[in-house]
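We modelled the chain as a single entity of 562 amino acids. Its sequence is:
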Amino acid sequence: MKKILSIAMVLITTSTLTAQTQNPLLIPPTLTGPNYNLIVDYDSLEIFPGFFTQTAGVNGAILGPTLIINKGDVVTMNVENRLIDTTTMHWHGVHLPSAMDGGPHSKIYPNTTWVPTWIAMDRASTMWYHPHLHHKTYKHVMMGVSGLIINRDTDEAALALPRTYGVDDIPLVLQTKVMDANYQIDTDMMNSAMDTLFLANATRNAYFDAPAQVVRFRILNGSPMRVYNLGLSNGNDFWVIGSDGGLLSAPVQNNRLLIAPGERYEILVDLSGMQGQNVSIFNYGTGIPSSTYGAGSMMGGGAIQNYNNNPLNGANFTLLSLNVIAQTSNPITTIPVTLVSVNPYSQTNIDENRQFNFTSTGGQSGPFLINGNTFDMSQVNHVIPLNNKEIWSFTNQTPIAHPFHIHDIQFNILEINGAAPPLHMQGWKDILLIPGHQGNAKFIAKFDDFADANVPFMYHCHMLVHEDEGMMGQFTVVDNGSTGVETLETEIFSIYPNPANDKIQVKLKNSVNQEIQIIDVKGGLMFQGILTEMISTIDVRKLSNGIYFIKAGSTTTKFIKQ
């Protein structure tokens, strides 16, 4: 049965690579905040003519709306789960409290709604959202549950960049699917190496009518496993202007761009003077380094089952065909010289150096371990003091490259295999592809703003099969008396209502004469007083809308002013 299934998958892919029929690129709709309503549910999609494939998506058949978030907004997500499975929703790359992060601890049970809230603090950037339930992340993403996030700020708005969504500012989600002989998505991780169907924005053989001017592509590698090597089919250069966590200091001219699962890059392609021509964004699979999933061969240390049977591995193929049409009325026709100030972290006054070692219990096929451990929901692997600045160093003793992702914070890459990273990787990152065969890398990061002793953040390989099999750890950030806040489990008071717009009632559970403080997310003291009654009222009308923390004794509770 497995041989028949594999042959069917290959035939589907071969037709995909050679078919003449093209389909217009799906442009996901947008949602603007600050309040967002997201419904995760099953649906179906006609990926292949005449065949309806069961999918899962957010507010639609597959993928989800692009969320437009403005820096400073008080963001509220209403995430309703209509799947038969428990799931989660992780805001990948977003800087926010751990309780809002959507990791495996924040379960959304069937027919329930999760309502995380936070203040948008991120730079202008392209991020994404996807499920993160342990053992089910691969399944839910493979079925189609994911979507883009576009963060906006005033620094980006001041630049002469394309930003008309779907016209000259194009979302581009690269994904592969494993399809069975009945044109249904196969979510069995044992068959993950047969991801033979490529989709751009859930579109097979996609094309886009691009204006003859500078066009911006926000590219997400949303594939569960596959690495891509991007370039233009005509050999022209393009300009990288942003990485995972924000814009670079200046555009970087490239003709190839390696992008690992979970990574995002923003690029500018100059199509000026090309009206009437056709050019493609191409995957140059022949240039993917050996031992990287997507290369033609995987050298050493065992083999990934069916890997060499996948016709996409090592292949050069079209990701998106561009038909160049007339300019828009207000085209961008030049590449900016500079962008924004990046200000990477200084390597002086480092609080901690942490070492991470990747090993395998099963050769190239895994399972893979971090520091000899597989993921345990009950085990916190690292406790990090709030505001620590740390260097994390990695050694990869496995034969395969791993894209390492850390939640909540953005880092600066210091080196890869002993060398400085290329210019397009010298901005803000949350994913680092660590080479195989004794490959090594380092990054520097600061763990600021949010502390919670009870709800951890994750770090893990973003090859979703590896993650689900246990290549993941967790850390808590704790307040050691410096700036910031900490949320603790032991409550000595409660507040009502929450959210509030004018007044809140604070109810003590034990004794009176408790000092109370209201603190903002930056650690600033907004109110201080003594509660002399078991139930007290506090006027919060003068507070700006946003997230705050109320602290009495050793207990801190979050509330929202709106």
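As a brief sanity check on the tokenised model: Helices lie at 2-18, 137-143, 154-157, 464-468. Residues 488-561 form a domain with the Immunoglobulin-like fold (CATH 2.60.40.3080).
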